[in-house]
Specification:
The complex is a heterodimer of chains A (207) and B (215).
Chain A lengths: L10 E3 L5 H11 L28 H20 L10 E10 L5 E4 L6 E8 L17 E4 L14 E4 L5 E6 L4 E3 L8 E10 L12
Antiparallel strand pairs in A: 1-7, 2-9, 3-8, 4-7, 4-9, 5-6, 5-8
Helix pairs in contact in A: 1-2
Chain B lengths: L18 E4 L4 H15 L24 H20 L9 E11 L5 E4 L6 E8 L17 E4 L14 E4 L5 E6 L4 E3 L8 E11 L11
Antiparallel strand pairs in B: 1-7, 2-9, 3-8, 4-7, 4-9, 5-6, 5-8
Chain lengths: 207, 215
C-alpha cells in the first residue's frame, strides 16, 4: 500500500451553470465589477470589497446556493468531521481582466479556501506544454518546494480557463494567472471562504 | 507592566538570503562570454524532460578558456559568501559543485514559476539585455522582471502584497538565491536578445557525499 497523505485537493467543474442562467448571471454581475478596483492595499488604502452575494438577483442567489453545496462537499473531501455543523463565511466579487492583465503569484492569508468562476473570456491557448511562454493559464504551484521536480516540470498544475468553469482550492496554495491574451474582457468571480471554528471563532476580542 | 520598555529585541531568524551584484567585468570579457555561450549552447535545447526526455545537458564551465576560468573563480567566491551568510561553519572546507548553461530570451519569452531540486543555490548572470523599466508597479501587467516568491505561504500579506520581490535585471547584473525559492522571469520586453548564464550549485558535504552509490 502506498499511502498518499495530505493531498492538495482542487475542485474543477465545467458547465457549472446552464447557458441561460450563465447569461443572466453575466448581466447581473456587470454593474458590480467597477465597485472593486482590484488592487492591493499598498496601492489604495481606501479599498473596500463589497460582497456580490448581497445582491438579491435570482441568478446570483442561485449561484450562491451552488457554491454553498460545493463548499460543503469540498469540506468533506478535506476531512472535516460533520462539515454541515460548521458555518462557512464567504466574500465574493467579480473582476475584469483585459488583454495583458495578469495576477502575480499569491496566496490568501486568514481564510481557508479560494474559488474562481470564469464567466466569460476568449480561450487563447497554444495547447502546448511550455515553460517559456505565457498562455493565459491559471498556474497552481506545488506548496512543498522541496519535492518539486524540475525535470518533469510538475511543480505547476496548469489550468486553461474557459467560460463556465468553477474552481475551488486551498487558500494556502500559491497561484497566479498568466497574461490574458484574449480580445474580449475576461470576466470572473472570485470567492474567499473561511470556515468558522466552533471553539474560538466567536471568542476573539479586539485589542 | 511598562508598555514603553526598551529592552526588546525582535529576532529575525531564517531569512532568505539573496546576493545581488553589479559585476565588475570588462565589455570585452562580457562579449567573449556571450560568444562562448552561444557557441557551446546552440546544439542543446533548454526544455524540461517532459518535453524532450532525450535531451542532453552540458556544463559551460567545462570550456577551457580564461574567461570561463574567471567565471569559475567568481562563482566560487560568491557561493562562499552566501554560505557564510547562511551560517555554514568553515565554508572553505566544503566542495562546491556547479553546472552552468548559457541561455537567451527573445522578446516575449519567459520562464514559468519553478525552483530547483537536489541542489542548494541558483545564480544568474545577465550579460546583455534591453532594460525596459517604466518605474511603475507590475501588479497587473508583467514588466520583464525576475520575481522571487516568499517560500512561506502562511505569512503572505495580500494587503501590502509582499509575497513577491521584484528584481529588474540589467546588463552585468548577478543574482544568487537558495534553490528552494520559487522564481519566475516575466515575459522579456526588450528588443535585443537577452543573454544570461545560469548556475546550479550544490554543496558537497563531506560526511555522506563521497559515499553515495548507484543502485
Amino acid at each position: 500500500m502506498l499511502h498518499q497523505l495530505w493531498p492538495t485537493n482542487i475542485w474543477t467543474e465545467h458547465n457549472f451553470l446552464t447557458d441561460d442562467i450563465l447569461k443572466q448571471f453575466h448581466q447581473a454581475i456587470l454593474p458590480h465589477i467597477d465597485k472593486y478596483n482590484g488592487v492591493p492595499e499598498i496601492f489604495n488604502q481606501e479599498i473596500t470589497i463589497p460582497n456580490l452575494f448581497l445582491d438579491p438577483d435570482d441568478s446570483i442567489q442561485y449561484f450562491r446556493q451552488l457554491v454553498k453545496e460545493r463548499m460543503y462537499y469540498f469540506l468533506r473531501v478535506e476531512g472535516f468531521i460533520d462539515p454541515e455543523e460548521l458555518e462557512i463565511e464567504i466574500n465574493v466579487f467579480p473582476r475584469r481582466f483585459v488583454y495583458g492583465d495578469r495576477a502575480r503569484p499569491h496566496t490568501h492569508r486568514g481564510i481557508d479556501y479560494v474559488g474562481v468562476f470564469y464567466v466569460d473570456l476568449d480561450v487563447v491557448d497554444s495547447n502546448e506544454d511550455t515553460c517559456d511562454r505565457d498562455d493565459g493559464r491559471l498556474l497552481l504551484i506545488d506548496p512543498i518546494a522541496q519535492r518539486s521536480r524540475g525535470l518533469n516540470h510538475n511543480m505547476l498544475f496548469q489550468l486553461k480557463p474557459v467560460p463556465n468553469l468553477f474552481i475551488i482550492h486551498p487558500a494556502y496554495m500559491f497561484h497566479e494567472s498568466e497574461m490574458y491574451k484574449g480580445t474580449k474582457d475576461r470576466i470572473l468571480v472570485v470567492m474567499n471562504a473561511r470556515i468558522k471554528d466552533r471553539q474560538q471563532a466567536n471568542s476573539f476580542i479586539k485589542l | 507592566m511598562n508598555v514603553d520598555n526598551q529592552q526588546i529585541t525582535i529576532q529575525r531568524h531564517w531569512p532568505v538570503n539573496i546576493l545581488m551584484e553589479k559585476v565588475d567585468i570588462s565589455d570585452e570579457e562580457n562579449q567573449e562570454l556571450i560568444r562562448i555561450g552561444e557557441e557551446h549552447s546552440k546544439e542543446f535545447k533548454h526544455v524540461p524532460d517532459i518535453l524532450d526526455p532525450n535531451r542532453k545537458g552540458y556544463n559551460l564551465l567545462d570550456v577551457d578558456h580564461p574567461v570561463i576560468d574567471k567565471m569559475k573563480a567568481f562563482i566560487k567566491s560568491r557561493t562562499l559568501m552566501m554560505m557564510e551568510a547562511e551560517g555554514f561553519i568553515n565554508p572553505e572546507k566544503y566542495d562546491i559543485e556547479v553546472v552552468s548553461a548559457a541561455r537567451s530570451h527573445q522578446p516575449g519569452e519567459r520562464s514559468k514559476t519553478h525552483n530547483h531540486r537536489g541542489c542548494d543555490y541558483v545564480a544568474v548572470y545577465y550579460a546583455d539585455l534591453d532594460v525596459v523599466n517604466d518605474g511603475t508597479d507590475n501588479f497587473k501587467t508583467p514588466k520583464g522582471r525576475l520575481l522571487l516568491t516568499d517560500p512561506i505561504s502562511q505569512r503572505s500579506r495580500a494587503l501590502n502584497h509582499t509575497q513577491n520581490i521584484d528584481v529588474i535585471p540589467y546588463p552585468k547584473f548577478f543574482i544568487m538565491h537558495p534553490a528552494y525559492l520559487y522564481h519566475q522571469s516575466e515575459p522579456y520586453l526588450g528588443e535585443r536578445t537577452r543573454y544570461f548564464f545560469t548556475f546550479v550549485i550544490r554543496i558537497a558535504e563531506p560526511i555522506q557525499h563521497p559515499f553515495y552509490k548507484k543502485i
